[in-house]
Write a structure and sequence with these properties.
Length: 210
């Protein structure tokens, strides 16, 4: 019988590829630069990693590529999720406790004890910002959709479309705009969806000043 030596997540992370293949990678000071170069900017891939810390994180991070799994291995930590400016907290108090961070959600962690956590991260497009700096307020895109005023803005799950009612209040338009639609194509997308409402006097969707 041949014995196979186990790997250690402290010194070796694992890349899960598009075909679910697992590739061990040595932890070095240039690890993340190497991952981007060798794994196509990490598109369609997951990184299984672990990190130790004994103080609050100094940054927020956000993963637009998918949900992230955060699991406590030792110590204690509070995971903080930024929900449109409101903080939600998840207490990770015992080994094995974990949380799922939704796609596109800014998050950070706080602790005052030696702590190690395991992460399963969709790394493509990851963003960071310092703790204490709030993200810029969402940009509202306003449109005249064949006589109805509608606004589109970004939320955690993608685009949100709202329509102005006769009372001046904003309500859901009951139309899902795929998050893959780029900002500059929003007017054309709305035109395609609502084209049956076109009239000779309102032949197309118009973008309005924000």
């Amino acid at each position: 019988m041949t014995a196979t030596s186990p790997l250690d997540l402290v010194s070796t992370f694992v890349v899960i590829g598009p075909q679910h293949e697992a590739t061990p990678v040595a932890v070095t000071q240039t690890l993340f630069e190497q991952l981007d170069r060798q794994h196509e900017q990490f598109e369609g891939r997951l990184l299984v990693s672990s990190f130790a810390f004994d103080a609050n994180w100094t940054t927020w991070e956000m993963h637009p590529g998918g949900d992230e799994i955060v699991c406590l291995l030792s110590g204690r930590a509070t995971l903080v999720l930024d929900r449109d400016g409101r903080e939600d907290t998840v207490e990770l108090a015992h080994p094995g406790a974990f949380a799922i961070v939704p796609k596109g959600t800014w998050h950070t962690a706080r602790t005052g004890a030696p702590t190690r956590m395991l992460f399963v991260t969709p790394g493509h497009g990851t963003q960071n910002r310092p703790v204490g700096r709030r993200p810029a307020p969402p940009t509202l895109h306003r449109f005249d959709v064949f006589g109805k005023i509608m606004i589109v803005d970004r939320i955690e799950s993608g685009w949100r479309l709202r329509v102005q009612g006769s009372d001046g209040k904003w309500g859901p338009a009951n139309v899902v705009i795929p998050e893959s639609v780029p900002e500059h194509e929003l007017a054309q997308y709305l035109d395609d969806v609502f084209h049956e409402s076109a009239t000779p006097g309102r032949p197309c969707v118009l973008r309005l000043p924000s």
